[in-house]
Amino acid sequence: MEFSLPIKILGILLLANACYATYAHRKERLTIYVDWTDAAITGLTPLIGFAVFLLLSFLNVPEEVGKTIAQLCVLVLVGFGIRMSWRANASTGAFLSSVVAKYTVLFAFYVLLWAIYSGGERRRKYERRSTAEKRHAAAVAATVAAYVTWSLWVCRFAEFSPVADWFSGESAGSFAVENGDEAEESEEIEEAEQAEQTEEMNDAVRPAPIASTEVVPPGSPYIGQTFNVVFQGLQPGLAHAEVRMKLAKLFNASPEQVDRLISMQSYVIKKCVKPEVAAKYKAAIESAGGICELQSVASSEEFATQLSRAA
Questions:
Q1: Given this model, what pLDDT does residue 19 score?
Q2: N or C: which end of the chain has fewer CB within 10 A?
Q3: What is the pLDDT of residue 137?
Q4: pTM
Q5: Calpha distance 207→288 (Å, rounded)
């Protein structure tokens, strides 16, 4: 089959965008698939439409009506898939690149499968039928394996979310990896870290519980009022999956680390920080959907005064 020059150029551009989007996804500049549910529904969209058509044919629905309904089902699923990409990417450029890439690869996958099946089990010259059948089956298996591997590789989270969350959009939430709210919050956290010259935020998911009356020992460099930043769970009424993704991005942590953080009633995020720094942490955590408390910590001067009074 011969293709015109414009079609060839378009194909090259689409292939280049798919390669770029895959690279950008791995660098967290955009999101192609949020999780395995997103990838599975998108990949199965054509098969779902075909299954709807077969079901309607079995129910003796006129063929043209069945085709129309099946096509509408496919368009609806594609619409939900596009909405997921919109919610998962903050910038218009990231959204367009990601959505074009995932449907380019999807289209190429099914076209390749169709080409393999339409070619049948053609035998080469002097080739046995059994050998041709094995070669045909291997081509199908390799194509499916390649597409599934790519789809899993470009999932932001390696897990299944409820299908209802995919349709409602909650599994994506306002998750964005480029120029979005989470990026701004991460910048605030980075500024706070630079001000205090402390470890990175992902270390915050491994602290130990503390008592609310912890004080600074004599000789502490923190003079005056300081605060402990304490994470105390999730805000009620918010989607768990959405908040989980936001916190994972905010803390630069894995979903499993965030789950451990959420499971505890009280975790220290930062110790003995200045009021303005503590306020930045509190605002970023609450914006992501968490509950944050600032616990006042006694200064070294107050601690010395308490010791003299006790003596």
A1: 94
A2: N
A3: 85
A4: 0.57
A5: 20
Q: How far apart are CA 24 and CA 31, in angstroms?
A: 8
Phi and psi, residue 293, nearest 5°: -120, 140
**Cα–Cα distance for residue pair 13/126, rounded to 1 Å:** 40
Average pLDDT, integer, range 28-54 = 92
Q: What share of the chain is helix, strand, coil (3-state, %, to 5)?
A: 65, 10, 30
Q: Could you tell me if 195 and 110 lie in one domain?
A: no
Q: Are strands 267-273 and 226-234 parallel, antiparallel or unpaired?
A: antiparallel
Classify the C-alpha dihedral 281-287-292-293 as positive or negative: positive
Query: Is 119 found in the same domain as 75?
Result: yes
pLDDT at 45 over 80: yes
| Listed residue (69, 72, 44) closest to 56, CA to CA | 69
Same domain assignment for residues 18 and 119? yes
Give the residue among 110, 43, 109, 51 at the shortest CA–CA distance from 77.
43
Give dist(CA 249, CA 244) in Å, integer: 9
The answer to the question of residue 174 being in a domain is no
Largest CA distance in the chain: 102
What does the block give as tokens for 186? 């991460």
Range of the domain at 193: 181-310
pLDDT surpasses 50 at 199: no
CB-neighbour burial class of residue 112 (10 A; exposed 0-12, middle 13-18, buried 19+): middle
Looking at 168, 191, 215, the residue that finishes a domain is 168
For residue 226, the 8-state DSSP code is E
Domain count, the chain: 2
For residue 292, give the 3-state DSSP assignment: strand
* pLDDT tens figures, 147-195: 999 999 999 888 888 888 888 876 654 344 333 444 444 555 555 555 5
